[in-house]
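For the sake of clarity, the format in which proteins appear in this thesis is described at this point. The record quoted next illustrates the convention:

___
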Amino acid sequence: MENFIETLGAEFVVLVVAAPALRLLGVLGVRRFTDWTVCAAHAMAVMLVLTGIVRFVPDSVAAMPSAEELARMVPPFVPFPLAMVYLTGVLELLVAVGLVLARTRWSAAVGLAVLLPLLLPANIYAALNDIPLNGAEATPLWVRVPQQAAYIAIALWIAKSADSTGARRLLKLARAAMTSRMRISPRTWRAIRRTSGTGPGS
């Protein structure tokens, strides 16, 4: 059983167990978990909290890999491997919070779908170069690649079902702000023409 969990990864087991457990709470009357996509979003958040916290665990905690161990998985073409480990940890924790909140769920799910493929090269590099993690062998590619594909599919499924109104509103405001910045008032045009010597009286 231990070897089975090691092969699949504790985070995968957490996701697979948490989603049905939350849905069961919905069946028992917890209104928040009456929808499978909401349960999946919360389960994914639990998984991301686990993987995110691991990056900040002190070396003295033998049960979890250290940030230095995770940094060895980062391919050589990626600069500042240790900083990248901490950065991805912060991003995972932020996405976890975003998935729990209905207002930010769409943005968080889309962000996760973008983030996951960026993390895959580290898993591929570790598997191809036999880089151990916390004393265990790297997850085989025949397990890791389908897992990442499944995570991306779940993230997109969550995004499809989530309310994107807030995100669209923000994008609309940002677009309007950029457009208004690009607009130049007649007074500014006159000042530009005077400065360039093409205005009246030049």
